[in-house]
Amino acid sequence: MAEPTPTPEALTQIEFRPPQRDWRDPAVEFRKGTFCYPANPKHLEYLGLANPRKWQPTDADWRLPENWRQIILDGLKERLEKYRSFRLFMDICVRCGACADKCHFYLGSGDPKNMPVLRAELIRSVYRRYFTTAGRLLGPLAGGRELTEQVLKEWFYYFYQCTECRRCSVFCPYGIDTAEITMIGRELLNLVGCNINWVLEPVANCYRTGNHLGIQPHGFKDSLDFAVDELAEMTGVRVEVPINKKGAEVLFVTPSADYFGTPHYFTLLGYFTLFHEVGLDFTMSAFASEGGNFGLFTSHDMIKRLNAKIYMEAKRLGVKWILGGECGHMWRVLHQYMDTMNGPADFLEVPVSPVTGTRFEHARSTRMVHICEFTADLIRHGRLRLDPTRNAHWRVTYHDSCNPSRAMGLLEEPRYILRQVCPSFYEMPENTIREQTFCCGSGSGLGTDENLEMRLRGGFPRANAVRYVHDRHGVNLLACVCAIDKATLPPLLEYWVPGVEVAGVHELVGNALVLRGEQPRTTDLRGTPLAGTEGPTHA
Question: How confident is the model at residue 538 (pLDDT cuts 50, 70, 90)?
Answer without folding.
Answer: very low
